[in-house]
Amino acid sequence: MTMSREPGSGSLRTGLRESHAHVAMLGRELWALALHDCTSREELLDRIAREAARRREAREPGWLIAAGVRVEAWGEPRWPTMRELDLCCPDRACFVRGFDYHSCAVNRRAFEHAGLHDASPNPPGGVICRDADAAPTGLLLEAAYARVRDAVPEPTRGQWKEMLRLGLATFASHGFSQVDDLLSQPWLGAVLAELHDAGELPLRVRLYVPWERIGEEASAAREYSRPGWVELGGGKAFADGTLNSRTAWMLEPYRDPLPGQPLGSALMPETALRRAMEVCSEAGARLAVHAIGDGAVRAVLNAREATPGARVRIEHAEIIDASDVPRFAALGVTCSVQPCHLLYDSEVLGHQLPARLHRVLPLRDLLSSGLVPGEGLVFGSDAPIVRPDPGDSVVAATLRRRAGVPATCAVAPDQAISAEVAWACFGPTTPA
Length: 432
Hints:
The chain is α/β, with parallel strands linked by helices. The protein is built from 15 helices and 16 strands. It has helices spanning 23-29, 41-58, 82-88, 108-113, 143-151, 157-173, 188-197, 214-224, 270-282, 294-305, 325-331, 341-352, 363-368, 390-399, 419-424, and strands at 4-5, 12-13, 16-21, 33-34, 64-69, 94-98, 103-106, 126-130, 136-142, 176-181, 204-210, 230-238, 286-291, 312-316, 334-337, 377-379. Strand 14 (312-316), helix 11 (325-331) and strand 15 form a beta-alpha-beta unit. The longest helix is centred in the N-terminal third of the chain and has 18 residues, at 41-58. The protein is globular. The two termini are 25 Å apart. The model is unreliable at 5-11 (pLDDT under 50).
């Protein structure tokens, strides 16, 4: 097993806990055309065209799925259009997924496979981006993105099992002995149990399922649960979108917001969040809530304050208003963050939220307010959104910038913490 190496030292780390990831999706991502290192739209289109030509020559059927695109890091942050993708991939559906799993660009075939057409209205909670003539550009956000994602042919159970093995092995290679899977597929528990019984499960897995099905999942867990190895962790809800899609729910406007959405997208109002907490509590489970923007974080904290006894984790919490920081410890809410996202989001933060940079990942303030490393404040990666190397989060938490970047580029440098404390946030390997 390859262990995690602490940046700047020779020490190896084992027994780590990855508090927010998607195990099977990491394996599936590793099967897709990787575009995380693309630096421009032109390069992306060239690589799509070459891959489409290769598959055409090899007579390979199926969609062309590409992943990992980070448009905000390009000199010209513009997605490829539907027409551009049609030209470089004319003979099959092409689905180009943003690294945040909340956005995509598609060609005409993929658009229509999802049941969409030029006059389709925005689905609830989603955006079909359009040009000046009201024609779809091919860029889809949130629920519109999900329409195409759900139209992609599902892998067979055997393929999923191989993808799952690949994902598990990848986490184990980084020194993790436990992973919290934060949006588990309906089949995941049963397949993990099979791997456990066959002696092929290299680490513990805690499953978090859509909160709406927490009751039925609690019943199913009686069959797949393998105490200490495969267990139900709780339910999952989404309060907002993402920064790169400009759909994270903010207290103050984006500098260049989506039309009609100056503060991003509130995917669940406080009333709905309270209902999700109540449903999970009735099932004896905790609720993990995706909340990136400071508006979403506040809404979750408000809902928790109005729902006594609920066990809640806030996932991501990338921007937190100063007045909300002490509420985590006071309400017993776990703050589950991924500092490594700072290495990927620095451009969009600077472009879109220059006035809120001082509130990005306020780790030092959270610890000072009473959160304990590895208990109230826990670290993960959100892989496959970004790579699962825990050293990335340690770099981000201690330097507040990418390694090798000038110190003047650090984001909220006063919120830096020590490497020792950062590593402590990757433990212990027990349910949070």
